C-alpha cells in the first residue's frame, strides 16, 4: 500500500501519452504511427542536382623538402705550408679563380729555382753530347771508331735528351706547386666563414676544409615522394589510365615558405630518383628555382607543389555535395531510377577551388545532389527541382 503514492503520478500521465499516440496517428496515419522513422523515410525531399562535366585537371602533389645549393665546393689546400694571408671577406661573393688564401711560398719558389737550374744543366749537357755524337757518327762512317764507341755515343745522346725532358717536367711541377701556394676559388658563389686563421699550418689531405663556396642561383629543392603514391600515379599514367603524362617543359613547381608565403618565382622539376630509400619508402625528386636575390638559402624547409601529369577529362564535384561518414570515407548522393536517393562512395584527391577532384566512383554525365543533400537519406524518395525554384522557395521563407 505504501507504493500507491509513488505510482499516482504515472497513472495521471497515462492519458496524456495515449493522446499523444492518437496525434501521431493523425499525422502519419495508423500504418506509420507505430514507426515514425519509417514515416521520415517516406517524406519526399526536394533537391537540386549538378551534372558532372569533364575538366582539364593538373595532377598536383604537395611535397616537403629542403633547399640545397646548385653547386658547392670545399676549399682545401693542395700544398703544405704556413698560412700567410686570407684574401676574402667572409660571407661575400667570390668568382672562380679569385685568390682566397696565400700559403708561405718561399720553399716552393726555391724549389722552382732549383728545378730551373737542373734543367739548364741538362740542356748544356745535351748540347755537348749531341756534338760528340755527331763527331763519332762521322768517324764511324770512315771506320775510325768501333761499333761500340758509336753505340755508346748514341745512348749518351738519348740519356741527355731524357734528362732535359725530366728537367722540364720538374720545372713544371715546381711552377704548379708555387701557383698552388695561392689557394683559389674553384667555383663562383658565396663563401662561408673561414675555419682557419693566419699562421695556421695547412697540409694536403687535412680533414677540415678551409671554407665552402655555395652557388645559389639557381637553387635546388630536394623533395621526397612516397613510392606508393608514385606507383599509383604511374598506374594512372599507364596505357589504360586516364591521366596523361605532360610535356617535361610543363612540369612546373611552386614553393610555399615556412611562414605560409608563396615564393614569387616558378621552378621546374629536373630530376626523379631511380631507387627507393628503404628506411623511408620514398623517392627523391629535385626541382630547380631561380634565386637572383638570394631569398632562398641552403637548408630551408619548404613545401612544394609539383605538377606531375594532367587529366584531360577530370571530374570535379562541388565540396558542398561531398559528405563523409564516421570512418572518414567520402560519398555523394545521386537520384536513382526509382526516384530514391542513392549513396555512392567516391575517392577524392585534392581540392581545386570550391570543388574536389574525384579519382574514382563517378562518371561524366551523372547527376549528384547539391542543395538539400544534408536532409537526404539513402533509399528515401527525392524530388529534383530547378535552381530557380530552389531560390524562390528560399526567398519565400
What's the short story on this structure?
The chain has helices spanning 4-28, 30-33, 36-42, 106-141, 147-180, 227-237, 387-396; strands at 45-47, 49-51, 54-75, 81-86, 93-94, 99-103, 182-184, 189-191, 201-202, 211-226, 252-256, 267-272, 282-289, 301-318, 323-324, 330-335, 341-352, 355-360, 367-369, 382-384.
CATH architecture of the domain at 58-70 and 214-312: Beta Barrel
Structural class from helices and strands?
A: alpha+beta
> Beta-strand level of the residues, as a percent range?
25-35%
Treating each run of at least 4 consecutive H or I residues as one helix, how many helices?
7
How would you describe what is shown here?
21% of the residues are buried. With 397 residues, this protein is an alpha+beta fold. Among the domains are: 58-70 and 214-312, Beta Barrel (Elongation Factor Tu (Ef-tu), domain 3); 78-104 and 181-208, RNA polymerase II/Efflux pump adaptor protein, barrel-sandwich hybrid domain (OB fold (Dihydrolipoamide Acetyltransferase, E2P), Beta Barrel); 105-180, Helix Hairpins. Mean pLDDT is 83; it is low at 1-33. It starts with a helix and ends with a helix. The protein is 32% helix and 34% strand.
Amino acid at each position: 500500500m505504501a507504493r500507491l503514492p509513488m505510482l499516482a503520478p504515472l497513472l495521471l500521465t497515462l492519458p496524456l501519452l495515449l493522446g499523444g499516440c492518437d496525434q501521431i496517428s493523425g499525422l502519419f496515419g495508423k500504418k506509420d504511427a507505430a514507426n515514425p522513422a519509417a514515416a521520415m523515410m517516406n517524406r519526399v525531399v526536394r533537391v537540386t542536382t549538378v551534372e558532372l562535366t569533364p575538366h582539364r585537371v593538373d595532377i598536383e602533389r604537395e611535397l616537403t623538402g629542403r633547399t640545397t645549393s646548385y653547386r658547392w665546393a670545399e676549399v682545401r689546400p693542395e700544398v703544405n705550408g704556413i698560412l700567410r694571408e686570407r684574401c676574402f671577406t667572409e660571407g661575400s661573393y667570390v668568382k672562380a679563380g679569385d685568390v682566397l688564401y696565400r700559403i708561405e711560398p718561399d720553399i716552393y719558389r726555391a724549389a722552382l729555382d732549383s728545378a730551373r737550374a737542373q734543367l739548364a744543366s741538362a740542356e748544356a749537357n745535351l748540347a755537348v753530347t749531341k756534338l760528340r755524337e755527331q763527331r763519332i757518327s762521322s768517324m764511324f762512317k770512315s771506320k775510325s771508331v768501333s761499333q761500340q764507341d758509336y753505340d755508346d755515343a748514341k745512348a749518351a745522346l738519348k740519356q741527355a735528351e731524357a734528362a732535359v725532358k725530366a728537367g722540364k717536367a720538374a720545372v713544371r711541377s715546381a711552377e704548379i706547386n708555387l701557383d698552388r701556394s695561392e689557394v683559389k676559388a674553384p667555383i663562383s658563389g658565396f663563401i662561408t666563414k673561414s675555419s682557419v686563421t693566419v699562421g695556421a699550418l695547412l697540409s694536403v689531405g687535412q680533414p677540415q676544409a678551409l671554407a665552402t663556396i655555395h652557388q645559389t642561383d639557381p637553387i635546388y629543392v630536394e623533395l621526397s615522394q612516397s613510392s606508393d603514391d608514385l606507383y599509383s600515379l604511374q598506374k594512372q599514367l599507364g596505357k589504360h589510365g586516364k591521366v596523361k603524362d605532360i610535356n617535361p617543359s610543363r612540369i612546373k613547381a611552386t614553393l610555399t615558405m615556412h611562414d605560409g608565403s608563396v615564393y614569387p618565382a616558378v621552378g621546374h622539376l629536373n630530376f626523379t630518383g631511380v631507387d627507393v630509400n628503404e628506411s623511408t619508402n620514398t623517392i627523391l625528386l629535385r626541382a630547380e628555382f631561380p634565386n637572383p636575390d638570394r631569398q632562398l638559402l641552403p637548408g630551408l624547409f619548404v613545401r612544394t607543389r609539383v605538377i606531375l601529369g594532367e587529366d584531360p577529362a577530370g571530374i570535379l564535384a562541388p565540396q558542398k555535395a561531398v559528405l563523409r561518414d564516421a570512418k572518414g570515407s567520402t560519398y555523394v548522393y545521386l537520384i536513382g531510377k526509382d526516384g530514391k536517393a542513392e549513396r555512392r562512395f567516391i575517392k577524392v584527391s585534392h581540392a581545386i577551388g570550391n570543388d574536389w577532384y574525384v579519382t574514382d566512383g563517378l562518371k561524366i554525365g551523372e547527376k549528384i545532389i547539391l542543395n538539400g543533400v544534408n536532409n537526404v537519406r539513402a533509399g528515401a524518395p527525392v524530388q529534383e527541382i530547378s535552381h530557380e525554384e530552389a531560390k524562390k522557395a528560399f526567398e519565400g521563407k
